[in-house]
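User: Okay, second chain of the day. Same drill as before: sequence in, structure tokens out.
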Amino acid sequence: MSTELKRAHVGKRLSEYAVYNGVVYLGGQVPEVNPEADFRAQTREVLGHIDRLLAEAGSDKTRILTCQIFLADIALIGQMNEVWDEWVPQGNTPPRATVEAKLADPRYLIEVVVSAALNA
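Assistant: Same drill. Structure tokens below.
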């Protein structure tokens, strides 16, 4: 197992992810393509970003170690859970926290942060 630190999609303020010691750490994923979309569409977009970045790093959603979900309005948790339940593989549901938070852009209704083990 490599202890080399790798960062990807490095920007001025953040990287999209970092890989270290067999774990990929994603930055907070938000709806960038269409932040004006309804909540379910924003959630699907964010989960799609997670799928794409995990695959690029050498992992996938079955290997998520922990997940933090930030909602602009906690009343949206039911809708979020519907989309989540369609996306997350049963038997591989990770430890998860969901909280209400004021997000950086008022159009964002959701932000998700995950860490996952790399594929063996």
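The chain has a mean pLDDT of 96.

User: Thanks, on to the next one.
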